[in-house]
Amino acid sequence: MKKAGLFVIFLMLSRLSFAQQGDMQLAEALYQAGNYEKAAELYEKLYQREPSSLFYVERLRECWSELRQYDKLIPFLQREIARQTALYTIAPLQVHLAQCYKEKHDHAKANETLNKLASLPETVSDYSLIIRELRLYKFYEAILDLVQRARRKFSRELLFADEAADAYVFLGNYRAATEEYLKLLQEDFPNYAKVQSQVMSYASRSSPAALNETLAVLEQARSKFPATSLARQLLSQLLTQLYIEAENYDGAFNEALYRDNITHARGGQLYNFATQMLQRKQFAAARKAFQAIVIANADVSFVQRAKIGLASVLEREAELLTGAARRAKLEEASAAYQEYERTYPLSLNLPDVYLAWANLEYNGLDNLSAAAQIAKKLLARFYESQPARSAEVLLAKIQLSQGNFSGLEHTLQKSATHPNASPEVRAEATYLLAFVQFLEGNYEGSLKTLAQIETQRDAANDALELRLLLLEALADTAKNPHALDALKEYSAAKRALAQKKYDEAASRFADWLNKYPTSPLVDNALYERATILLTIAPVAAAESYEKLLQLYPKSFYADKALFRLGELYENERKEPAKAMACYERLLREYPHSFYLRPARERLRKLKSSS
Q1: What mean pLDDT comes out for the span 560-589?
Q2: Inside any domain, residue 530
Q3: Which domain holds residue 545?
C-alpha cells in the first residue's frame, strides 16, 4: 500500500488541535522509521478521536499488517467495510480482509470475502478498481473470475485482456496468457512492444515447452485474422521473433516474406530480416533472404544492398574457415564486390563497397597493392564522403606494412584531426599514430598520444593494451638495466608483424622469449607469437597459448588466449571436447571477459551438435 504523501499529512495537520498535531507528527515519524508497534498505538488513539479519517484507517491497517496482528486487523476491517458506502473505499478494505484470512490459512473465508467483492461492481471503472486492488495482493484466480464476469456483463471479449494475460503468466498458464496477449493486438492502438516483451519473458529457448506451446497458439491464430489487418502483421512480427528464438529460421523467413508482400515493402522487410540473421551469424538464413530480394527484382535500392549483403555473408563465413578454404571464400567475396562495381557504377553505396572491398584485400587476403588501388579509387571518386576518411587511414596502414615511415606521422596526425572524419575514424588514426611512435622508439610520445583516445571508442581496447605494455616496460627500466633493450627488440618484432612478415615476426618473438625470460612483457610475447602461429603452425600456437595460461592466468591476455585456444581446438584441430573445456573455463574463471558472449554461443553450438 502506498504511503500518504506529505500534502495529505499537511492537510490533516491543518484540521487538528495542537495536541493532536503533536500526536500525529510523532505517529508518522514512528511509522516512517518502521516502529509500527508504537505508531499503531498512537494512530489507534487518533482514530478513536476521529473515526471518519481515511488516513488513520489506512495507517492502522498498514501498521497491523506489518505486525501481522490479524486478530486486531480483521474485526477492524469488518467494521470499516460495514461503515463505508463508496466502492473506492470498500474495495481496498475487502481485498485486504481476504488477504488477512489467506495469511491465517483460512481459505474458505478468504474466498467468501472475495465472492462478496465480485458482486459489488456495476461499471467498467468499478471492475478496473477492484482488479487493481486484487493485483496488489496477487489474487490472480479472483482477477480471472472477475474478468470473465465483466466480459459477460458488458459483452466485450477483449475487456481486461492485459490484466488477464498477466494473471495467467503468474499462474504459469502460458497458453491462456498468449491467447489474451493476442487480444491486445486487436486493439485500436496496440502496445506491441509490451506484448512482445511479456511473451518473450516466458517463451524462450531456456523454456522449450513454453516456447513450443506459445508458437502453437500463435500459428493457429494466423487464420483468425484478415491477411491485411494490423493485428495479423503484428502477429507475424511476434512469430518471427519466436521462430528465431526456436532456431526455426525457415519459419522466420516465411513470416518476413509475408510482411514484405502484404505491406508492399519491395524487399524492405526481407532486408531487415537478412541483416538480423547476419548479426546472429545465421549465414544460411541471411543468404536466403538476400537472394530472395535479388530474385524478386525488388526495389532497386534493396537489390543493391542485398548484393552487398551477399558479399558480407561470404566474408563472415570465411571467418569460420582456415587455410585454402578461407582464402577461396574471401576471393569469392572480393569478386562479388568487383561485380557490384561493374553493375552499379553510379550507386550511392559505392563508397561503402569500396571501403569494405579494400579492407577485405588488406586484412583477409594480404593483397596490399589491390587494397591500395581500391582505397585510392575511393578517394578519387568520393573524396568528401565518410568512407574516404577511413580509406586514408587504411592507406596509412598499407604504408606501414610496406615499411615506409616517411611522412607517416604527419598523414596520421591529419587524419586524427580531420573535421569531416567520424569520432571512430579519428580514434583509429590516433591509435595508429601512437603505434608508429612506439615502433620508432618514441615511447613517451606514444603514451601522450594514447591518452587522447576516448574510452568509448572501438580503438580504446587496443590503446589500453599498448599503454599497459609501455607502462610495464618503462617501469622495468628503473630496476633492470636490460629493460630498454628488451623493449626495443620487442618493438622490432612488432614492426615485422605490422609489415606482415609473419615468419620473421614469429622467429623474433621466439628469440626474445629466450633472451628475456623475466621481462614483464613475456605474456604479451607469448600471446603475439601464438596468434602469428595460428595460421602457419597451429600445434605450436596451442602450446604457446597453453604456456601463457599456465604461467600467467591473471594476464591481460588470459581470457583472449583461452578463447583463441578454444577456437583453434574447435576449427583447426577438430577436438570439440577440448574446445568446450576452454570455453567452460573462460565462463568460469573470467566472468567479466569481453569474450563471454561468443564463448557461450560456441559452447551451446558444440553441445547441441555433440
Answers
A1: 93
A2: yes
A3: 477-609
